[in-house]
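Q: Structure for this?
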Amino acid sequence: MHDSLDLDRYPQDRPGSAEWQALVNRCRDDLTRTGMFNLEGLMRAETAASETAALLPRFASDAFLHERMHNIYFKPVADLPPDHPALRRFHTSNRTLCADQLGGSALMRLYDWPEFARFLAATMDKPVLYPMDDPLARVNVMSYQQGQALNWHFDRSEFTTTLLLQAPEAGGGFEYRTDLRSDADPNYDGVARLLAGGDPEARTITLSPGTLNVFKGKNTAHRVTPVEGARARVIAVFSYFEQPGVTFTEAERTGFYGRAG
Ligand SMILES: O=C(O)CCC(=O)C(=O)O
Ligand SMILES: [Fe+2]
């Protein structure tokens, strides 16, 4: 993996060594303090650029256009009236390529590299993480062209793991509000305040190409702001689970990607 990753700076290939443990500890501290950690330049700039160049034509021809209005939960909430301000609806638009379209890429090699899952598990304080068996969902790459955005949402999984391949000229920021809710408290008033633009704890970061970003997506509200300029924002999302062999149902695949296989 040395050809595509900066393993001198981020020794993911040496699990259990003092320098590996120091990096894990730094990531854990960041997660506890801020709900997020970033490894800037984990993927080499040349690799991120060549992966992007190979994918850009496929976004034009083969990708699923995801375009919809949705609330932060992607569904109605039984305890709330439909006009509750926590259920405000927003527009999302991006294009997705799935794992079955990424064969042979450095991204898939990284996803299936056992030391990467081992490192991520350690940062998240899990005994082990497994890649999915789902032919589409294992790794997704999303592209956002001018005006496209991923709007406010919470993720289904506890943690979300992304790697930016190409940054846009402007816009395309990652805006997030750590621990806006908890498993015990949905904090609908807090959600409504965030959506109205009134949460002073909201933060925006712009990722640089090659950066690994891990955040607590289940209870951290987050969005990608609209991209500006001619260069698309291109980002990979890796899905791991605590059990081996996880797949989506055909209905889930069709809902997420417009096709079952
Ligand atoms: O593109 C990003 O930075 C975040 C992606 C995300 O939130 C998601 O895939 O659920
Ligand atoms: Fe998300």
